[in-house]
Amino acid sequence: MRTEGVSRLRRVSFAARLVREFGGLLATRPASVDWPGGVVSFTFDDFPRSAWTEGGPVLEAHRVRGTYYTAMGFAGGGNHLGPMFELDDLRAAHARGHEIACHTFSHRDCMRAPAGEIAAEIERNGAALVEALDGMRPGNFAYPFGGVSQSAKAAAHLRFDTCRGTGRGINRGIVDLADLAANSIYTRDFDRALLCRLIDDAQARGGWVIFFTHDVTDAPSAFGCTPAQLDAVVAYAVANTAVLPVHDVLARLGLAAAAAVTAAA
Ligand SMILES: [Zn+2]
User: Fold this and answer.
1) Per-residue b/e over 189-208, b at no fewer than 16 CB within 10 Å?
2) Where is average pLDDT lowest: 9-18, 41-50, 51-60, 141-150?
3) Is beta strand 78-79 parallel, antiparallel or unpaired with respect to 30-33?
4) pTM value?
5) What residues does the ion ligand 1 have nearby, CB within 5 Å?
6) CATH number of the structural domain spanning residue 152
7) Is residue 261 part of a domain?
8) What separation in Å is there between the alpha carbon of 41 and the centre of ligand 1?
9) Does 219 fall in a domain?
10) What DSSP designation does 174 have?
11) How far is the CA of 144 from the centre of ligand 1 (A)?
12) DSSP bridge partners of 213
């Protein structure tokens, strides 16, 4: 019996090593996600100012926090998403316990850039965040435009605990932390029932649902939603599952190895 147990253990260890080594070659980060009762994260990309001034109060009214994947090149500017964040917004969100995570500095599409350029964009953004937030080093990353390529994964997957794409679905069982699934909350195709079914599914089967949007206003862009729409999904999630920023989910799963370490020097 004992011998069988040992040999089974060896087989498992060998399989685990294969997954790790093969995963390294393919720039994947295999990990197991099993969260009894389900967990939901609300994330905002780029960081339009309204994601904080309108979206922040929605989250805080439900006593939960979000994750802001920030492109520092947008600071103080504006685009089709409306006015972008000011540094004071960034600092306020961070001070109130929301997670500040990483995007590329100039929102460069990783599908269209060589690995070296992606790495430089990520390094520049990370350095700007560290400077703006007194040493806070972002532990998580989202691919701009959901542009996930092998070179992008290669550039990003060892720098962060997770990289988030925009492929729909629930993160459950063996997942690739270098390409987490996420689901948009956009006014243009808003379907509350569909989004709530994702939450139900995560609750029933121990999964992690990540939602993302951009601007949050009563007249949002094609890539944003209204405060009422965000509120409807947040309220349903809070009533049915845990709701946590990405970093907190990882920490509680024991997967936050490299995450959000305050810069020591
Ligand atoms: Zn983006």
Assistant:
1) ebeeeebbebbebbbeebbb
2) 9-18
3) unpaired
4) 0.88
5) 45-46, 144
6) 3.20.20.370
7) no
8) 17
9) yes
10) E
11) 4
12) 44
Query: What's the pLDDT tens digit per position in 238-262?
Result: 999 999 999 999 999 999 875 443 3
Residue 18 included in any domain: no
Question: In 106-191, where does DSSP find H-type helix?
Answer: 115-132, 150-156
Whether 193 shows a pLDDT value over 90: the answer reads yes
CA 150 – ligand 1 centroid, Å: 18
Q: What is the pLDDT of residue 17?
A: 55
Per-residue pLDDT tens over the stretch 113-151? 888 899 999 999 999 999 999 999 999 999 999 888 888
Q: Domain residues for 238?
A: 32-253
**Cβ within 8 Å of residue 9, ≥6 positions away:** none
Closest alpha carbon to 218 in 42, 44, 63, 55: 55
What separation in Å is there between the alpha carbon of 65 and the centre of ligand 1? 19
**Number of structural domains found in the chain:** 1
Q: 188 C-alpha to center of ligand 1: Å? A: 17
The rounded Å distance from CA 145 to ligand 1 centre is 6
Residue 30 C-alpha to ligand 1 middle, in angstroms?
Answer: 24
Q: Over the stretch 54-90, which tens digit does the pLDDT of each residue have? A: 999 999 999 999 999 999 999 999 999 999 999 999 9
- CA of residue 152 to ligand 1 center, whole Å: 14
Let me know if residue 258 belongs to a domain. Answer: no
CA of residue 171 to ligand 1 center, whole Å? 20
